[in-house]
Amino acid sequence: MDGSTGSVAKPVVLVVDDHEDTRHMSVIVLRSQGFQPVAAASGEAAFASACDARPDVIVTDLAMPDGNGWDYCNGSRPTNARITFRWSW
Questions:
Q1: How far apart are CA 34 and CA 81, in angstroms?
Q2: Secondary structure letter of residue 73 according to DSSP
Q3: pLDDT in tens, 15-37
Q4: Do the strands 67-68 and 63-64 form a parallel or antiparallel pair, or are they unpaired?
Q5: Closest by CA position to 88, among listed 23, 12, 14
Q6: CB contact burial 11-48 (16+ within 10 A = b; e otherwise)
Q7: Are 35 and 10 spatial neighbours (Cβ–Cβ below 8 Å)?
Q8: Prediction pTM value
Q9: How far apart are CA 34 and CA 9, in angstroms?
């Protein structure tokens, strides 16, 4: 619960995808289901967002120009968030 308002905090989901349309639709769907999405367009941006937002879950594309979702599995993530992989073509 949020101590100031008495409301339950929404789970934070970091969405990482270099495809803008996929990232945008993921944010819309997550928000409609009661999550607090944070979007990142690259591995570098994801790392910074994870440091700032401290997500509960990371949903990431496996193949991106500046890194990949496997990097998070190998311990290079700045949070203990659970990771879900998404493969976009």
A1: 18
A2: I
A3: 989 999 999 999 999 999 999 99
A4: antiparallel
A5: 23
A6: ebbbbbbbeeeebeebbeebeeeebebbbbbebeebbe
A7: yes
A8: 0.77
A9: 10
The pLDDT tens digits for 54-87 are: 888 888 888 787 766 666 656 555 566 666 666 5
Percent with pLDDT over 90 in the chain: 33
Look at the block and give the residue holding tokens 């994870």.
50
CB distance 20 to 41 below 8 Å: yes
> Do you know the residue count of the chain?
89
Q: Where are the alpha helices (DSSP H) in the chain?
A: 20-32, 43-53, 70-71
Burial label, 81 (beta-carbon count in 10 A; 0-12, 13-18, 19+): buried
CA dist., res. 30 & res. 89, Å (int):
21
Would you state the structure tokens that stand for residue 81, as one six-digit string? Answer: 């968030």
Alpha carbons within 13 angstroms on the beta-carbon side of residue 76 total: 12
